Inverse folding.
């Protein structure tokens, strides 16, 4: 089945924070609106004007640190008009958590300017590829021929079944960004503090555990994902990293021996996370599904 057949009548749109592999984006015709990256006076579109690899190369020597900005209404309008011209009868937009970005509100503003093209905007309450898993659920519903409301419902219903946990390599970037006091960053560096962060139901991100050392932090991540997915069918896992491929590959080996999962991805975190948390971040995102009644009845 080719990409044109998979598009269906409803387009699925998300922002570049989503981290989904390019082949998945292409297969399900998921449209991407780029996040804006600001290096001093230079404004760059994530994935268009600068690659993920290029971003992390610049981040390591950047002073001051880059800033990020959500797409503007015009950016969303351009995509709405594109998919409408391609034959879509409506669109569902999956955004980064509204507690972390203005993308949700911006998409709503843009949708209001398209009275003849129905758009539903879904706040994922998530970030990283966890947000991408919500978009993927919507895209699969659209590919099956679902209508506008059913595609939006498919996305919303999946949100409680998706989450993530990541380990910070350093507090330096949070300190430079004004999110951690200097003394905390200094102490954290001295004792090799590697905080583990995860998503919360309200759409915020918080500390799961203040781990000492990388090995402890990795174990905390594995334990957290196991706790959240125990007794459920694990549809997909993603090993995420911010310019830390070797560390991510080690984590993937641990995941493959510990979890039974239909799909495992290895992806690089987009600049939105990197700009605030710095390079060296690794983590996991998960998506659990309950078996359908027909599956449960099978031998």
């Amino acid at each position: 089945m080719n990409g044109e057949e998979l598009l269906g009548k409803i387009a699925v749109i998300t922002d570049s924070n989503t981290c989904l592999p390019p082949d998945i984006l292409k297969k399900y015709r998921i449209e991407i609106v780029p996040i804006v990256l600001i290096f001093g006076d230079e404004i760059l579109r994530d994935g268009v004007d600068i690659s993920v690899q290029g971003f992390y190369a610049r981040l390591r020597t950047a002073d001051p640190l880059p800033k990020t900005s959500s797409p503007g209404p015009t950016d969303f309008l351009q995509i709405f008009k594109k998919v409408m011209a391609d034959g879509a009868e409506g669109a569902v937009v999956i955004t980064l958590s509204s507690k972390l970005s203005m993308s949700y509100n911006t998409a709503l503003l843009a949708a209001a300017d398209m009275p003849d093209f129905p758009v539903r905007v879904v706040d994922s309450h998530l970030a990283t590829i966890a947000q991408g898993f919500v978009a993927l659920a919507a895209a699969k519903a659209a590919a099956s021929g679902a209508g506008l409301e059913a595609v939006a419902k498919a996305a919303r219903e999946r949100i409680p079944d998706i989450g993530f946990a990541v380990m910070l390599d350093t507090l330096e970037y949070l300190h430079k960004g004004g999110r951690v006091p200097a003394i905390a960053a200094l102490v954290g560096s001295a004792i090799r503090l590697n905080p583990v962060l995860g998503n919360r139901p309200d759409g915020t991100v918080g500390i799961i555990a203040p781990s000492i050392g990388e090995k402890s932090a990795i174990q905390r991540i594995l334990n957290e994902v196991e706790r959240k997915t125990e007794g459920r069918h694990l549809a997909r896992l993603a090993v995420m990293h911010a310019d830390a491929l070797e560390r991510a590959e080690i984590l993937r080996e641990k995941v493959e021996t510990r979890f039974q999962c239909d799909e495992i991805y290895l992806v690089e975190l987009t600049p939105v996370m990197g700009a605030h948390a710095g390079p060296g971040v690794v983590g996991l995102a998960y998506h659990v599904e309950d078996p359908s009644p027909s599956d449960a009845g099978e031998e």
In short: The chain has two domains: 3-159, 162-295. The longest strand covers residues 233-241.
